[in-house]
Structure prediction request, 283 residues.
Amino acid sequence: MVKRTFLRTAGLTTVMTVMLTGAMAGSAFAAYDDMDAVSLSKELVGKDYTKGGESLKGGFDESGLNYYVYKMLDYKMPRALADQFKMDKPLIQSFSSIKEGDVLFFGKGNNPSSSGIYVGNDKMIMASSSKDRVVTVSTQSYKNQFIGARRILSANDQKRVMLVLTAQKYLGTPYDFGAKYGQTKTFDCSSFMKWIYSKYNIDLPRISRDQAKEGKFVSKSDLDTGDLVFFTTKDSKGKIGHVGMYIGDGMMIHTYGEGGVKYSTIESGWWDSHYVTARRVIN
Prediction:
């Protein structure tokens, strides 16, 4: 089982700042094999560019970055850039059809000279020799050199990415116990989960206690991004009273009390001591 972590800020350019502050500081450099391609790529921003490099200590070159990211996620990928472009994965020839997690290639004809991992919002992560580090750049500045992309992620991995990206759009939305389902000005924990998962054809019950009966059980040690995590609360009398979406590195996105939709750790503090179970609702 490969566990993955997804984006953890509302803006694609602020992930590192948020991760290094507050509750997330302890997980900023957690095990990189517990992440998805998008957020793992983003955590490598600022690492050194090194010709022939493919590691944290040794730095990365163009293809070395791709090789490292997908190797950590148990996807097989050749080491050389030309071979990566020829991989037996779906070839995306239209720039308008690229999706988060795709590897984009730039060059002439069938000869790539550079590449980047698409992270959404017209941004990609690439190892830049001219800037001597891993950077976030606009895909538009490379559009005229685009020769194709390879879709590495499975359909379920793509769904996990989009679940978290969608949930992030509501960060800061006020919490309202018993919020009416179908409106998005306020949420309670279970209406929030039901709303987000419904966007990807996963129909959940309205109440967290009932949501805990969906899908299949998964242990806390084997959580994957997109799993539902359940807790007791001070008012639930020992029964399940809260739900969130696991996003990896011991974090969840959820809504509860002051601040509304937010990120919280489930590895320490209140939510750790009130954890009950988890369910996997992505096939």
Q: What stands out?
A: Residues 37-152 form a domain with the endopeptidase fold (from Nostoc punctiforme) fold (CATH 3.90.1720.10). The first helix runs from residue 15 to 19. The CA atoms of residues 63 and 140 lie 20 Å apart.
